[in-house]
Amino acid sequence: MVRQLEVLSVSDDGNHVLLASSEDATRATHQVRITSRLVAAINGELDDEDEHRESELSPKEIQARLRAGDTVEQVARAARIPVARIMIYATPVISERERIIDQARAAKMRRPRGPESTSTLGAAVTQRLTEVAGLQPETVEWTARRREDASWLITLSFTARGGTRNAQWIWRPNGRDLTAHNALGSRMGSLESLTPARKRSAAATARGTTAKAPAKRASATTRKTAAKRVARKPRPEPREAPMREQVRTADGRIVVPSWDDVLLGVTAPTGSRGRRRS
After folding, report:
1. What is the pTM of this model?
2. Rounded to an integer, what distance in angstroms lies between the CA atom of residue 79 and that of residue 60?
3. pLDDT tens figures, 218-256
4. In this structure, are residues 129 and 140 in contact, taking their beta carbons and an 8 Å threshold?
5. Which of 9, 140, 156, 250 is the most exposed place for a label (fewest CB within 10 A)?
């Protein structure tokens, strides 16, 4: 004998229908998970043949789609089989994606310039999320999607101030290489901030100029200071030419050198033939 149950309400998370033995009951005694199959049954679209219908996708194609980011429901529609049959292939893929996310969170982000981050991705994101204004913690979600080159796109999505934001990284398991895929991923993936020198360099690059090195500025200042000191230094007074010693004769008269002696710089000795001054 089939027991009759009545619908009371929907669970708070919206994933189950709550049932009871009577409509007047105050507490639910049973619940049914809301699935596409349940919806199809309510709409009269449930086909028993679905359980035995052959999938239009191979198991390999199903798992490839799941790794690429398709949901179970999307793959089920593409394969034209029930979701329950897709879950047989989805469970290993879901476990693989969770493992990939854990690996990426434990790695340190490599930056295009400079050394890799000193903090793991998981630790950096946990700290950065505390700095996000208006963050809704219940919306934080990690996902992983495999790309055609065998690398994985790691996405952190969250809602803050009414908008959904996505920080993304590229994770290459073989090389243990983690890099930012967008600007938000670069900011969220590292706790290091730019040093003053790197800030000047980044600002100069944005302006299309080259930042001046502090050593060059100090050198210019030194040259200016030296020039001022030289300008303040008094110039030496010009020296007077020493007076030529006068030569006198025995009787006290001054001997005047001849013209030749003046030209040659020779001082006439006492008793020379130079002209005497009376």
Report:
1. 0.52
2. 12
3. 555 666 665 566 556 555 555 554 555 555 666 666 666
4. yes
5. 250
